[in-house]
Amino acid sequence: MIIEVIGTSVEDVIDAQKCGADRIEFCQNMVEGGLTPSIGLVQAAVEAVDIPINVMVRPHSKSFVYNEYDMDVMLRDIDAIKRAGANGIVIGTITESGKVNEEQLQHLLGAAKGLDVTFHRAFDAVDDQMTELETILKYNQIKTILTSGGADRATEASSQLAALVERTKNTSLTIMPGSGLVPENIENFYEVVKPDALHFGSGVRLNSSFDCSFSGDRINQIREVTV
């Protein structure tokens, strides 16, 4: 089981490693759902820990539909993130009609050669997840989809997430549920969905707040349930 946590600072990634997280999704501006951090911050975070750091590549929070200027920024960011030594990137792009934007995705993946790639919760904004999953499965470079199953909270879409996990068995793709997961609700959720990776935000922090440090006890609770 991979336990991925959201980190927003150098202190965060050091703390997450000490508390037993397996991987970091690194971003800033959590009030906007997570945006691309500065490259200086990425460099410092990568140098501070040994666990993998996957960096959010998201230039704004207006939508997951991007124009040519947004694409230029994202391609520049991917290049800089690669040079900073990060393990991977977290990306996602869709069309106004709710389809995966394959043309843009191909450009982003071209820039990301050599990096681990997660397709982020833009997947929760598509019109039909099972259909768009087939599109993403065409790209072996994408290793993970972060999704709440299309609901506000992953626990509200257990059956959908279980179906996504079932479809991706024996493929190169891992479904990683996230949003609203906490140690208190993970046991029943895990039994239904049976994922190989889980994503946590404030739910594994003290006081369930991004202003507080990670809780090793809360991460251990999750580990015990999912062994």
Please characterize this protein's 3D structure.
The model has no long low-confidence stretch (mean pLDDT 97). This protein has 227 residues and is an alpha/beta fold. It contains 8 helices and 8 strands; from the N terminus they run βαβαβαβαβαβαβαβα. It has a single domain, classed as Copper homeostasis (CutC) domain (TIM Barrel). Helix 1 packs parallel to helix 2, helix 2 runs parallel beside helix 3 and helix 3 runs parallel beside helix 4.
As a percent range, the share of helical residues equals 25-40%
Uncertain residue ranges: none
Fourth-level CATH superfamily = Copper homeostasis (CutC) domain
List how many beta strands DSSP finds. Answer: 8
Q: How much of the residues is beta strand, in percent?
A: 15-25%
CATH architecture: Alpha-Beta Barrel
- Count of separate DSSP helical elements: 8
Describe the sheet with the most strands: 8 strands, parallel
Average pLDDT figure: 97
- CATH fold category name: TIM Barrel
H-E order: EHEHEHEHEHEHEHEH
Radius of gyration: 16 Å
In the CATH scheme, the class would be Alpha Beta
Structural class: alpha/beta
Overall outline: globular
Q: How are the secondary structure elements laid out?
A:
Layout: E1 2-7, H1 10-18, E2 23-26, H2 39-48, E3 53-56, H3 68-84, E4 88-91, H4 102-111, E5 116-119, H5 129-136, E6 142-147, H6 158-167, E7 174-177, H7 186-193, E8 197-200, H8 216-226
Parallel strand pairs: 1-2, 1-8, 2-3, 3-4, 4-5, 5-6, 6-7
Concise account of the structure shown:
The protein is an alpha/beta fold and 227 residues long.
